[in-house]
Amino acid sequence: AMEKSYVPMFLLLIVISCALAKDAGKKDTKDTTAKPKLPQTLSRGWGDQLIWTQTYEEALFRAKNSQKPLMIIHHLEDCPHSQALKKVFAEHKDIQKLAEKFILLNLYETTDKNLAPDGQYVPRVLFIDPSLTVRADITGRYSNRLYAYEPSDISLLYSNMQKALKLLKTEL
């Protein structure tokens, strides 16, 4: 008798963050042909007057050398949750002012597992201190996505930024 031991495995995760598609945008052939004349600003809309680093490596180097904490925002262009958070972040005057005290980086995806302590969802915001330790202890309000913030959580993100700066003074 032929035995069919085929069990379909479907894991449906219902979360309000956007799934991170590894190949999203990679197959675009447009990238190679039509290059825009001016590079998009590194802020990508998160704060055009702020100084943003280009790569994770550069950000780590600058955090260590300047003794400033690093704030990393993971987001995706086609994620409505990323877009919504970006809008309130960019329009929040106190956050924009406080952000000047950080080394700043926004990314679409990362290969460093330390930057995805509980998964690769977006948007997520992580802080790294100048000793280059990921501050996994600075979290948002969702237990299933510790580093996620929604527009309504913007004041929590602000106080977490203050926390990241305070830790700096007490620990170093």
UniProtKB/TrEMBL annotation:
SUPFAM superfamilies: Thioredoxin-like (SSF52833). It comes from the Eukaryota. It is found in: Endoplasmic reticulum; Secreted. Keywords: Endoplasmic reticulum, Secreted, Signal. GO terms for cellular component: endoplasmic reticulum; extracellular region. It holds the Pfam family Thioredoxin_7. The keyword Cytoplasm does not apply. InterPro entries: AGR/TXD (IPR051099), Thioredoxin-like_sf (IPR036249). One of its GO terms (molecular function) is dystroglycan binding. Gene3D superfamilies: Glutaredoxin. Its main location: endoplasmic reticulum. Residues 1-21 form the signal peptide. Belongs to the AGR family. This is AGR2 protein. It comes from Edolisoma coerulescens.
